[in-house]
Specification:
- This protein is mainly α.
- It has one domain.
- 74% of the residues lie in helices and 0% in strands.
- It contains 15 helices and no strands.
- The radius of gyration is 18 Å and the shape is globular.
């Protein structure tokens, strides 16, 4: 298997654990959780850069884009996992590949939205609706939790597209994105949240989250995109919602329900349809 695909699969495996770890640490304030995990994740950049500080020098707009993606995406996802059923919220969050298809003609000049891609988007939203409804009526308190899940999908889709419109940057520079995003998250925690009550056993999960889905995964993904065909690597990303949902169900001791299975199939099938040529 090509090295780029192996790197991408490594990122996917790590990302699949994010929702489960987020649920495990759901008792911690979201700004604090995001900040600490991103700071831990930024450490991955040190050996990658071989302590060459020049690799962390990026234009201010590129840095702002990185903070928008890393900070915005994870904060909204953690909020969603607290205010909606985790499995369904996780599936809605994984509409981001479809978001890339729909937003690409707007963000990237010269691209058009084909009929196949439009049908894929409609199919994906049907899957999201089934994930949200789950065969039961929605209450206001439950329904609001899906908004940050949708927001996280839109943030990651737009971030992924906008990185193609900024000057190329070293993979190690992602560590700077994580460092600044983590610091911003902790500032928001001080201003807006009560102090975090962290149990000793929480630190193991925090380190796993920081070094894994909020750390090494970003570096692996960036390295994969720099070495391979982005279209083929992008198709692999649609394994993530299935793996993530299965991990969530296993963690919660739940069986796979019919609505979750159909919703997952619709979302993943729509993503494949929308990205295939």
């Amino acid at each position: 298997m090509h090295l780029s695909r192996l790197l991408a699969l490594g990122a996917i495996a790590l990302w699949a654990s994010l929702a489960m770890l987020g649920v495990r640490l759901a008792h911690l304030p979201p700004f604090w959780l995001t900040g600490v995990a991103l700071l831990i994740g930024s450490v991955v950049a040190l050996p990658l850069s071989r302590l060459d500080l020049s690799q962390f020098r990026v234009p201010l707009p590129t840095l702002a884009l990185g903070v928008y993606g890393l900070f915005g995406f994870h904060f909204l996802l953690f909020i969603a996992l607290r205010h909606a059923p985790p499995v369904q919220a996780n599936l809605v969050n994984y509409l981001w590949p479809l978001g890339m298809v729909v937003l690409a003609p707007v963000v990237l000049p010269g691209l058009k939205l084909s009929l196949r891609q439009l049908l894929a988007a409609l199919l994906g939203f049907a899957g999201a609706a089934l994930a949200i409804g789950g065969g039961q009526s929605l209450q206001g308190g439950l329904a609001w939790g899906y908004l940050p899940a949708l927001g996280s999908a839109l943030v990651w889709a737009s971030y992924s597209l906008l990185t193609q419109r900024v000057p190329a940057f070293p993979t190690a520079a992602i560590g700077l994105f994580a460092l600044v995003s983590g610091a911003l998250s902790l500032l928001c925690h001080v201003w807006l949240e009560p102090p975090a009550q962290v149990a000793p056993q929480d630190w193991l999960w925090l380190v796993l989250m920081g070094l894994g889905p909020l750390g090494a995964a970003f570096f692996l993904w960036d390295a994969a995109l720099k070495r391979g065909d982005a279209r083929q690597i992008g198709l692999l990303s649609f394994l993530t919602p299935l793996l993530s949902t299965l991990l969530l169900l296993w963690h919660r001791g739940e069986a796979i329900t019919g609505s979750v299975a159909v919703a997952a199939a619709l979302i993943v099938g729509a993503a494949w349809l929308g990205r295939s040529r």
